[in-house]
Amino acid sequence: MTSHRYDGLVALIHERQPACGSTTVVAVDGPSGSGKTSLVGELADAAGASVLHLEDLYPGWHGLAATPPMVHGVLESVAVGDVGTAARWDWVEDRPGAPLHVPPVPLLILDGVGSGSGAIRPFLSLLIWVEAPTAVRKQRALARDGGVYAPFWDTWAAQEAAHFSAEETRRHADVIVHTDA
């Protein structure tokens, strides 16, 4: 993928007003393996954005529900011009790790499942939903994370399904991106 592919999204982002103090926040949400992180990498390069990867915050394989309130707290600080702080998750030690600091910036992209949740939406200028068929997503996720993710696929997928059903994230999306191939 080349960044010109995202010219339309970049233009849309730049049309949006900041909803988090002086920071324009874009959430890229969707189920695991849908292609969020690839899209975010290209989009951030094309738009000159900073990125907050929610995988740095999820408190373990059972922690999806705890993440949106953490991100809300980070964005509350950013909205008033302060540096937002949350504990980075140490996946090796399976416990909270060093603090993660998020300063106010002109453009911040949130990358991850739950980034478009109701707790975070008041800070969002744009919500992008990324989707792909389950078989494609699973193959991508397991190829990316190998044996580390395999034992937790069903656990995480169940959390995602419950979360997306309760939050109706796709319905709230401003843009839907299909990454079928």
Spell out the key features of this protein:
5-stranded parallel beta sheet; 181 residues; alpha/beta; Rossmann fold; 7 strands; 6 helices
By secondary-structure content and strand pairing, the structural class works out as alpha/beta
Rough outline = globular
- The fourth-level CATH homologous superfamily is P-loop containing nucleotide triphosphate hydrolases
Number of strands: 7
Indicate the radius of gyration in whole angstroms: 15 Å
For the largest sheet, list the strands in their spatial order.
2-5-1-6-7
The N- and C-terminal alpha carbons lie at a distance of 12 Å
The amount of beta strand, in percent, is: 15-25%
Roughly what percent helix? 25-40%
What CATH first level would be assigned?
Answer: Alpha Beta
The CATH topology label is Rossmann fold
